[in-house]
Sequence to fold (679 residues):
Amino acid sequence: METPLGELPRISPERLHGLHRLGLNTVMDLLRHFPRRYDDQRERVTLSELVTGTPATVEVTVAELHPRRARYRRMELLEAEVHDDSATAEVIWFNQPYLRHILHQGDRITLHGKAVRTRRGGIKLQNPEMEREQRGVAQSKVGVLVPTYPETARVTSRWLRARIAELLPLAGGAAETLPRFVRQPQGLMPLGAALQQMHFPEDHDQLDQAKLRFGFEELFFPQLAALLARRQRLSKVGTRSPYDVALAREFVAALPFRLTEAQRRAAHEILIDLDRPAPMNRLLQGDVGSGKTVVAAMAARMAIAAGHQVVLMAPTEILARQHQETMRELLSPFGIWPRLLVGSTRVAQRREILGGLAAGADKLVVGTHSLIEDEVRLPQLGLCIVDEQHRFGVAQRLRLRDKSESNPDFLSMTATPIPRSLSLTLYGDLDVSQIRELPPNRHPVKTLVVEPSGREDAYDFIRSEIKRGRQGFIICPLIEDSPGLEVRSATAEYERLSQEVLPELRLVLLHGRLAAREKAERMAAFARHEFDLLVATSVIEVGVDVPNATVIGIEGADRFGLAQLHQFRGRVGRGEYESHCLLFADEEDPAARRRLQALIDHQDGFELAEVDLRLRGSGDPYGLVQHGFPEMRVGDLLDDGLRERARSAAELVLASDPNLRDRTLRTGIRGYQVVFEFD
Ligand code: ADP
Ligand code: MG
Fold:
């Protein structure tokens, strides 16, 4: 099963290249390369029932064979006369010289193909697929449920069918990935049989059984890994920050606004967790602008009151600076002064900050990846807050944890709403708090598609908003795999807008190639209203808070995913003013239009996420692979029933084998080690 495909006989380098492009490297990979669909050729007709032009399956006997070579073109022909009880017919094959060697007079064969009328009124099958009847061997290629595979030019379904059929007899000896004690109570097929039925199903029922087995497996292992990670965490002793109700009240009373109900609930859940000895691992999920930061500040307040140090880590410098500012506003009244540690922090200052943190004198530090560098020492670290947590990996998280002398609590935040169906699998090791409510007096953002003919009107609209004292964003198109090109196109757009289209406005450009400090300065100047319009690449995607901005134009909107568009839209509508999101679309692609329409129809990020998942369909519906997940091929994340079955099976396993000593299961979860944290 582990043999590299290159070591199999009769595989050309081109073919091997094609196989690698499909992600297939070993025999097992090939056997797990499942068909995309099945062509049902099972119904038989007699020769007299053949209808010209309609594909059909017949079972016939070979009466005569005439190999020929076409005169003008160098082409091998094989003509045959075949019959069944109802009639005789002609068959012709082009360019399949090997057929001459395997077909004989008197052979019983199954043919599938289209018939034409001959000049003399007879019936002729042209280039039909053919399988010889062999005693004791089940029909597997023609006249059955015939598999069609995801293919490339070099690796066709026909080729895959033949090679997989050859290799399948080995499948019975393949190491079973789901032990019997998991499989049997669920009534799941063993691996060998399931592989056989996936490729060459006896009937639809067997096929469904095989799909069920693999679908189950794909949902079972991530949940097993998640539950194990969770179990291991809860058995550890971590830090405690007692829930001081008076302190919480005092914090809330000092805020310039009333917390929403959802914020209160989330804060309450977090404070209860902090009070427990086991290390917290909680995800705070809330739409853009739902006010997660203040909840995080409250948690920080509580942990610091208990004598712990707190870090707040963000994926970009702009965001880190903004968080430091917010934390200072919220916490300095209590004598807590957050430090900022980012890539551009100057050497002298950095040294001072590192000293303060190592001595435990500084209690709160906000920063970027710089925080996880070796020199940063945080002996009393008790709480780690990670914003936009999906931008960080498990390894980074572990490095942060290891700075502490104990097991610190983790609070992750994300503005990318994950549908519930997904979050159970994706974040199964986390406890989740959701903020599904925006602060009052927010207006929904009016969203519309701007057709090419409406461009001038759109610019007029932007002008009028700015004349009223508001600000806006222009997002430049995503250019995949080419940040360099993206920067150039954003620069060109900035020049076009500031010279030709909107010369009377104060424009500023922001893109990923600028130095971090420069980016932060331009952003801050924009926030101070020294500019009217910010032209940017997707770098402004996360977290920027400028309440005076009321309009965002997104160029090439059809190239962005829904989640990202929703994030962009969240940059406006953060203040008291009515806001607009203008989607500039260049193409009429119906799938892209459906996405844009969904954005118009839904303001709620969670609803949008569900819609997105459905629109994307199977494959890698939610960029799971990007999160480090193995690809889902058969499993359907939207199948709540199966997911529940897989989850309870995983729970059952851990109830009797809490440390997961079972070798097979350990192997099964290995692929999830980059996603979940377990020993
Ligand atoms: P996000 O969840 O996107 O991180 P923020 O924490 O940045 O959102 O909050 C967005 C804005 O809303 C901030 O300016 C914040 O001060 C404000 N805000 C937060 N909670 C409330 C509330 N309950 N009422 C009014 N404004 C609030
Ligand atoms: Mg935020």
Observations:
- Residues 204-234 form the longest helix (31 residues).
- Residues 257-260, 263, 286, 288-294, 415, 439, 543, 545, 574 surround adenosine-5'-diphosphate (ligand 1) (CB under 6 Å).
